[in-house]
Structure formats: C-alpha cells, structure tokens
Amino acid sequence: MDNFQRLVEEAQKGDQNAFGEIVTAHHDTVYRVLYRIVNNESDAKDLAQQTWVKAWKNLASFKGKSAFTTWLYRIAVFTAWDFVRKKKRRAEVSYFEAPEGSFENNPAQSQSNRESPSHTLRRKEIREQFQIALNSLTEKQRTVLVLREVEGLPYKEIANIMKCRIGTVMSRIHNARKSVQSKMEDFR
User: Fold this and answer.
1) How many helices (H) and strands (E) are present in the chain, helices listed first?
2) Domains and CATH numbers, the chain
3) Which end of the chain is more exposed for a tag (fewer CB within 10 A), N or C?
4) What digits encode the pLDDT tens for the residues 5-62?
5) Three-class SS of residue 44?
6) What is the pLDDT of residues 26-37, one digit of tens each?
7) DSSP assignments along 110-142, one per residue
8) Which of 56, 57, 55, 60 is nearest to 72 (CA)?
C-alpha cells in the first residue's frame, strides 16, 4: 500500500491530519482546475473550499473504483458547474483576471520583460481574445479542454471525471479546439 492510499484510508476513518495532508498535496491542482472553469480568482478560492468540504463530508463514499484524484476532480468539476449555472441565472458577468503565479505572471515563462511595448500589447490582446473564446465554450467543452490541455489528464480519466464515454470526451475536445481556433483567426 502506498503512502497516499494510506492517507486516504486514515482520512476515511476520521483522521483530520491525514485529510490535511491530502489537501496540501492537491489544493493547487484543484484550485487551478476551478479557476480555469470559472475564470475568477475569488470564486475559484471559494469553490476550492467548497470542494474540500464536500470531499471531507463524502469521503466514506470513495470506494477506490477510480483514482482518488479522479473522484476529487469530479467533485470540483460538478461544484464549478453548479456555481456557473447559478451565476448565469443571476446574469452576473465575470472578467478574466490571472491569479498570482499563473503562466501570464510567471517571469520564467513570460518574455514580456524583453519585449517591445507593441509586442507586449499584442500578447495581451491574444490572451484576452483566448479568454473570450474559452468563455464562449459550453461548460462541458471548457472543462474537458482544461482537464486535457492544462492539466494533461488522459482521455480515460477525463471520461471518469465527467461520467461519460471516451468518445464523448474526444468529441468535446475536438469541438472546443475548433471553436477556439475559429475565434482566434484574427490573431494568426
């Protein structure tokens, strides 16, 4: 039995310290997935908290039929979808704002420190248009695209998280990519 599985079993028996270690190990990943779905730092933080509360309350329902992370992603994704649906009903609008430490603000991955102002502006316009394109996707398309392209999850795990067939995942990813590409045509 590996250390992580032992932590899960101890947490299922009510060990809050073991659950705390699980949270520490996976908090950033859960937050990142949620952020990419809701596109708002504050909302993603709140949803991450809700995800962990739901995971703690429902830990006994984890039977080990899938990976623990698959079970956890499923909770996060459905929590985000519920939030987005409620937000749409209230007709609120959220705007893109990159969280600290994201790829947009990472000097090791950004060349904006050496770019001309016009190139920096162009990169900003591309990021904004990409976010608009991402926001135009359906919840399910956006989620599969984030899970595949940002988190690098395999199709089978995404299918388990989304409770659908692998072919459905592949189709949603294909359609999401096509949609984003068509909305980014002006930036080629």
Assistant:
1) 8, 0
2) 1-95 (1.10.1740.10), 101-188 (1.10.10.10)
3) C
4) 899 999 999 999 999 999 999 999 999 999 988 888 999 999 999 999 999 999 989 9
5) helix
6) 999 999 999 988
7) --TTTS-HHHHHHHHHHHHHHHHHHHHS-HHHH
8) 55
The amino acid sitting at 134 is L
In whole angstroms, give the CA distance from residue 179 to residue 139: 13
Token pair listed for 77: 């994704």
Task: Please state whether the predicted TM-score (pTM) of the whole model is above 0.70.
Answer: no
Give the helix ranges, DSSP H, for 39-106.
41-57, 68-89
- Let me know how long the chain is: 188
**How many CB atoms within 10 Å of residue 8?**
21
Please list, residue by residue across 38-71, b when 16 or more beta carbons sit within 10 angstroms of its beta carbon and e when fewer do. bbbbebbeebbebbbeebeeebeebeeeeebbbb
